[in-house]
Amino acid sequence: MPIALVTGANRGIGFEVARQLLGRGFAVYLGSRSAKSGDEARQRLGHEAACVLEIDIADADSIRRAAAQLSQSTDHLDVLINNAGVLGPHDDSVLTISAELVERTFHTNALGPLLVTQAFLPLLEKAASPRVINVSSGGGSLTNMGHWSPAYSVSKAALNAVTRQLAAALAGKIAVNSVCPGWVRTDMGGKNAPRSVEQGADGIVWLAADAPASLTNKFLRDRQEIEW
Questions:
Q1: Going edge to edge, which strands form the sheet with 219-221?
Q2: pLDDT at 202 (0 to 100)
């Protein structure tokens, strides 16, 4: 049974990714900042192959504790999905945005996935065909970037750079890709977003379960490569 860790799996896209992977025969660790929220998500899923892993990706100590805990439960990790992220309030204008908001958003959306990948790398390296999937955004595309949500957009551009760095460093060993789920109806995306969580999760699940193992160092949406 392949094993996946999904950060931010207690709600939204992460929860739907976990649900679909469980249906595909994966054992899934539900990464959640709160053990209580993670357990509530596990109960909603109602699947024996779902387990909770308490992890706050904005806290380096929490990441280290989570990696140590997981290493006591399994000897390898097939798929790491860095899904957890934030879109802060008042992220309106690059001309007025506060340094504190930029730093907080960057720390969670870009540095967090890097530290998580580093911490879980020993388990990934023991898998037969390991994959790291960074959930990014079209807002982070330098080619198409406008002025929308500057802190979020800049942090996702940085996450894409993290993807490229990791993919180059791990070439031939671990597939590393960024994926844009699109604008999805979640707490973050809002009720007016055009895409369902099922649609948003599809490309992530495809990368985790069906994409060629040789596919790496790419930025994708709807299973197709898009511009960085």
A1: 50-54, 27-32, 3-6, 79-82, 131-135, 175-179, 219-221, 224-225
A2: 97
Tens of pLDDT, residue by residue over 154-202, are 999 999 999 999 999 999 999 999 999 988 888 888 888 788 899 999 9
CA distance 27 to 131: 15
Domain extent, residue 17, equals 3-225
Number of domains into which the chain is organized: 1
- Distance, C-alpha 3 to centroid of its chain: 15
Answer yes or no: 152 catalytic: yes
Task: Give the relative orientation of helices 12-23 and 197-209 as an angle to the nearest 10 degrees.
Answer: 50
Q: Are 143 and 226 in contact (CB under 8 A)?
A: no
Q: Which of 152, 167, 182, 220 is catalytic?
A: 152
By CB atoms closer than 10 A (0-12, 13-18, 19+), residue 128 is exposed
CATH number for position 137: 3.40.50.720
Q: Determine what percent of the chain is predicted with pLDDT higher than 70.
A: 100
Amino acid at 192: N
